[in-house]
Amino acid sequence: MSTASVEAAQPAPHPGRIRRRRRARIAYWTRGLVMSLLALLFLTPFLWMLSSALKRNGDIFSVPTQWIPDPLVWDNFVEVWTGEQSMLRYFSNSTIVVVATILGQLFVVTLAGYAFGQLKFKGQNVLFIAFLATSMVPAQLLLVPRFMFFSQIGLYDTLVALILPGMASVFATFLLRQHFAAAPRELGEAARIDGASEWRIFSRIYLPLARPMLAALAILTFDSTWNDYESALIMITDEAKYTVPLGLTRFMSDDGTVSLGPALAGSVSSIIPVLIIFLIFQRHFMKSMARAGLR
């Protein structure tokens, strides 16, 4: 049988199926266009900030807005990184706080989440509900008691005062509790029968299963700690210990005027680490969020 006869023998696509395919294709491209426009809308403030950081102060609020600076002015970034108010010191302080907070929080919340999710002990549910209830207290109400506590124990005006409170997180503990509770208990029971200790069961069996969730929590903790302004404002007075959010206020003079070009250059620089961390761990972040949604 020839090819022409085979093609002639095949039935023609039904008109209704063709219309459904065409509508599906149009809907697909329409959704893509709408999402692209929304993404551009959300990126507009950042693009304006980046454009303004490369302009002279007098050109920032020019009308109409000049999105592509002409000429490109790099002096703002040079001042931010090499001037008298260099942000290198602030970046190093924030890095210390963020790394210590992430490591401490992941250690604490993984143990707490495993205890609530896999172990059985008396009063477990009551204790967990009481622990969740603490999240209803606004964080701002705890700033003054925290200030008084750290002042009494001699940790006020130190980076430790920013690190210790971040190690405990109700949200992170709840997520890991849900993760460990959904993990198969048969794995732990089989290991206990073979004589494995509880720490070995936790570290060798259940902890590796939580890597995507830990990566997602690390990103969220990095973002919240890196951008934490209130805690640093209350706990830190020595400029040598300023973090990035506090360091950005150094571009404001005593009379309230702002050196806008360097301030925007510093803001752009402060966002870059967050973007880098998210791009590196975005696969784990999306994977963990998808799993959380399925549960």
Outline of the structure:
This protein is mainly α. Helix content is 69%, strand content 0%.
What is the assigned CATH homologous superfamily of the largest domain?
Answer: MetI-like
Main beta-sheet strand count, sense and barrel state: none
The end-to-end distance, rounded to whole angstroms, is 55 Å
CATH topology call of the largest domain: MetI-like fold
Overall structural class, as computed from helix and strand content, comes to: mainly alpha
Supply the number of structural domains: 2
Number of helices in the DSSP assignment: 14
**How many strands?**
0
CATH class of the largest domain: Mainly Alpha
- Computed over alpha carbons, the radius of gyration is 27 Å
CATH architecture of the largest domain: Orthogonal Bundle
- Helical amount: 55-70%
Average pLDDT level:
82
Q: Would you list the SSEs in sequence order as H and E?
A: HHHHHHHHHHHHHH
Subcellular location: Cell membrane
Keywords: Cell membrane, Membrane, Transmembrane, Transmembrane helix, Transport
Family: Belongs to the binding-protein-dependent transport system permease family.
Membrane topology: Multi-pass membrane protein
Sum up the structure in keywords:
mainly alpha, flat, MetI-like fold, single chain, 295 residues
